[in-house]
Specification:
Helix 1 packs antiparallel against helix 2 and helix 2 runs antiparallel to helix 3. The chain starts with a strand and ends with a helix. The protein is 55% helix and 12% strand. The model has no long low-confidence stretch (mean pLDDT 83). The chain has three helices and two strands.
Length: 67
């Protein structure tokens, strides 16, 4: 984390998350706190993976294994 001193006040800049850090956060948002992985959850996960440029083949492999 970087800090900047501005007139005696230290400001902190938020460290940018890595690609995998952001992907993990999105997947956790979809899956955590759900009693089971139902079809709706799988569709949300598919959307997250596709929009994260994981690729259609990899996305389908992941969701098929979860089914």
């Amino acid at each position: 984390m970087n800090s900047i001193c501005n007139g005696g006040i230290v400001l902190f800049e938020k460290k940018k998350k890595s690609f995998f850090g952001r992907l993990q956060e999105k997947i956790e948002d979809v899956i955590l706190n759900r009693p089971e992985i139902d079809e709706e959850t799988l569709e949300e996960l598919e959307e997250v993976l596709i929009t994260s440029d994981i690729g259609m083949d990899t996305t389908l492999k992941i969701t098929e294994r979860l089914r």
